[in-house]
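Appendix B, Record 12. Input sequence as logged:
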Amino acid sequence: MKPARGWGARIALQFASRGERTVLAQKQQQGPLTVQRAFYPEGAACHLYLLHPPGGVVGGDRLEIEAQVATGAHALLTTPGAAKFYRSAGAMAQQRQHFEVADGGVLEWLPQESILFPGARLQLQTQVTLRGSARLIGWEILSLGRPVIDERFDRGCATIGLRIERDDKPMLSERLRLDVEQSPQTGLDGASGLRGLPITATLIATGAVAADLEAARAAVPAEPGFALGLTLLDDLLVARALASKVEPVMHQFRAIWRCLRPRLLGQEASSPRIWAT
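Logged structural output:
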């Protein structure tokens, strides 16, 4: 029988450069978090798929995902499907993600969306620590309910945090707080909410300049009923999206990624195989 306090799971990955390839040099895992074998569709970069075999998270579950990328290493992490956070009977689910990239390292964090079912209670915190000339391209996509079946996140709460630092100095620090039951005005339809749109997403890319921002804007195809803004904070390019469905966001973000990858990382986009399934 599952403990009332929920499951605890942790995975810690270390990537290093070995010869002409990046390898998964070390893996530590506890509980139901694991990875598939590494793929090398473009030669040097290590493509790795993060798996959560239970298929969903409930109240009381605690997940920790850590990744360290060494100098000269290049890791691309994605997931085979959406993360699902189910209705809670009262306990809070927690997921903490901490990524560290050394000087000269590259990390691409490109997961599928996270779905919050009505009644879910979630704390999700992502922290990225960069050193020196480390590079990052990543995104987080949140689906509040399942709009494909007209389901809305009309009860529950979530706190979503994102912090990016370079050499111990903050580049971006933000938090989204939703508590539909206690403060309806912070929900999807409130004046300070999300315009009634259930999909909210953020893409970030480091090492960008004004020309990269203009190129990314030009690469984005027009989508009706879709709000997308791109801006540059020093060398951090930030794209934010609000939408009624997940698919247009994925389409837009992948277009931006395909545009920025050769400009910022010096490599043409090589989509993970799992995206085609």
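The longest helix spans residues 246-265.
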